[in-house]
């Protein structure tokens, strides 16, 4: 009989030997689980195990998709899956089965050679198909933290999975695509992403995100609006690919077309091609530049010239500038309307790329007193560094909406 010792996390039990459970214990737990959690709980998980609801993953596998066992332990290496058949002997022990020529066999060494002997009679009802998923986190090439997920494919078993963690949790393990410093990458739970998929079909991205961060705790809610926007974009892209309606434009042809437009189009001002970098494009009209000169170079009463990078408008990023047109006023509300300003289309998002964009603007606005200019952005470091470099006399301000979102998201973590 397996003795379970519960930890501080509800439904989480200690691995007494500090290693994965043996097959007999695993099957015993999956046959009669004491506590079934809806998802892997948040918190430290070192040498522990738990039982979770696996129904959604079984449905995903039936559709040919991968299982999702998301947690808050940072990034894992690409996992591997193993499917094995076991025979429960009359003595109640589990023996690994080898399938050879359509028969279940046992393995024996005869004169140093592996020999497979068919079982007589062949087992039928006492065969258990056990699925195992393994993932690791390494330190200097050595696996220091391991994860195993096990479930049994039998009609008489509940749709549950046993999740085991062996070793000391390294929550500082960062995602491979993450750049810079900041909070550790934590994947948004798959159940939440599934809800996002349904909601964005009829509701705007902002409304979905605002609703989730106000109704969910911080461990479940999307970490920012970009998560919701990316999910909507990827779902739309997958739908287009599935129906054969994917965009097939050639990127080189598009850049060549833009280059030809520089000489005869008022909007396309610059196309820059550098070695080893994605070409970038500056779009702005003479009217926009005139209005920026008129409305933005007054530190007391003028408009802030703001820039924000937008995602998922295509294969490139789009950074959009906006300003308030102080010459106009809405009749109903009395508000001053916001106009779109210079637009920057780019593939890289580092300081050098943004410096090209703001250098062009600083040249076109050289006749103005930059000490009267206020430039706004979110907290993206490369944007602010490029602004400070090209408009050294201007004042830099932050977007209050981004600051409020960051405060609202991280306030609960302050003790």
Describe this structure in words.
- This protein is of the alpha+beta class.
- It folds into three domains: 12-98 and 128-167, no CATH class; 190-242, no CATH class; 251-410, Nucleotidyltransferase, domain 5 (2-Layer Sandwich), CATH 3.30.420.
- Helices cover 27% and strands 27% of the residues.
- The protein has ten helices and 17 strands.
- It has helices spanning 23-31, 55-62, 190-199, 205-215, 225-242, 251-261, 286-295, 351-364, 381-390, 400-410, and strands at residues 12-14, 48-53, 80-88, 94-96, 98-100, 103-110, 113-118, 127-139, 142-153, 160-167, 268-272, 280-283, 305-310, 317-324, 338-346, 374-377, 395-398.
- The chain has a seven-stranded antiparallel beta sheet with strand order 1-2-10-9-8-3-4, covered by helices on one side. Strands 11-12-15-14-13-16-17 form a seven-stranded mixed beta sheet, with helices on both faces. A three-stranded antiparallel beta sheet has the order 5-6-7, with no helix packed on it.
- A hairpin with a 2-residue loop joins strand 8 (127-139) and strand 9.
- Helix 4 crosses helix 5 (225-242).
- The two termini are 42 Å apart.
- The mean pLDDT is 85.
Summarize the structure.
The chain has 415 residues and is of the alpha+beta class. The protein has helices at residues 23-31, 55-62, 190-199, 205-215, 225-242, 251-261, 286-295, 351-364, 381-390, 400-410, and strands at residues 12-14, 48-53, 80-88, 94-96, 98-100, 103-110, 113-118, 127-139, 142-153, 160-167, 268-272, 280-283, 305-310, 317-324, 338-346, 374-377, 395-398.
């Amino acid at each position: 009989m397996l003795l379970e010792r519960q930890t501080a996390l509800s439904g989480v039990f200690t691995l007494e030997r500090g290693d994965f459970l043996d097959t007999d214990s695993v099957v015993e737990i999956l046959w009669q689980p004491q506590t079934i959690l809806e998802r892997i709980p948040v918190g430290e998980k070192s040498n522990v195990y738990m039982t979770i609801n696996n129904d959604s993953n079984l449905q995903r596998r039936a559709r040919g998709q991968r299982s999702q066992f998301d947690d808050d332990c940072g990034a894992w290496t690409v996992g591997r899956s193993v499917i094995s058949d076991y025979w429960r002997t009359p003595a109640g022990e589990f023996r690994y089965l080898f399938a050879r020529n359509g028969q279940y066999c046992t393995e024996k060494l005869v004169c140093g050679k592996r020999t497979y002997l068919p079982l007589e009679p062949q087992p039928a009802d006492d065969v258990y198909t056990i699925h195992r998923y393994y993932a690791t986190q390494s330190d200097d090439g050595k696996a220091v933290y391991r994860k195993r997920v096990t479930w049994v494919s039998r009609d008489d078993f509940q749709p549950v999975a046993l999740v085991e963690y062996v070793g000391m949790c390294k929550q500082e393990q960062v995602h491979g695509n993450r750049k810079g410093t900041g909070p550790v990458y934590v994947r948004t739970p798959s159940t939440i992403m599934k809800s996002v998929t349904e909601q964005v079909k009829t509701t705007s991205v902002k409304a979905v995100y605002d609703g989730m961060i106000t109704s969910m705790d911080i461990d479940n809610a999307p970490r920012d609006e970009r998560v919701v926007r990316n999910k909507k974009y990827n779902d739309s892209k997958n739908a287009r690919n599935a129906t054969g309606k994917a965009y097939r434009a050639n990127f080189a042809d598009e850049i060549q077309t833009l280059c030809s437009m520089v000489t005869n189009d008022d909007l396309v001002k610059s196309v820059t091609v550098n070695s080893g970098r994605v070409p970038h494009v500056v779009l702005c009209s003479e009217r926009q530049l005139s209005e920026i000169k008129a409305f933005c170079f007054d530190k007391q009463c003028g408009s802030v010239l703001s820039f924000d990078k937008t995602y998922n408008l295509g294969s490139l990023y789009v950074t959009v500038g906006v300003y308030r047109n102080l010459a106009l006023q809405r009749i109903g509300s009395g508000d001053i309307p916001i106009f779109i300003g210079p637009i920057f289309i780019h593939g890289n998002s580092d300081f050098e790329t943004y410096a090209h964009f703001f250098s062009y603007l600083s040249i076109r606005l050289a006749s103005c007193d930059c000490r009267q200019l206020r430039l706004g952005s979110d907290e993206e470091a490369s944007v602010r560094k490029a602004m400070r470099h090209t408009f050294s006399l201007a004042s830099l301000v932050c977007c209050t909406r981004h600051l409020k979102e960051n405060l609202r998201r991280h306030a609960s973590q302050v003790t």
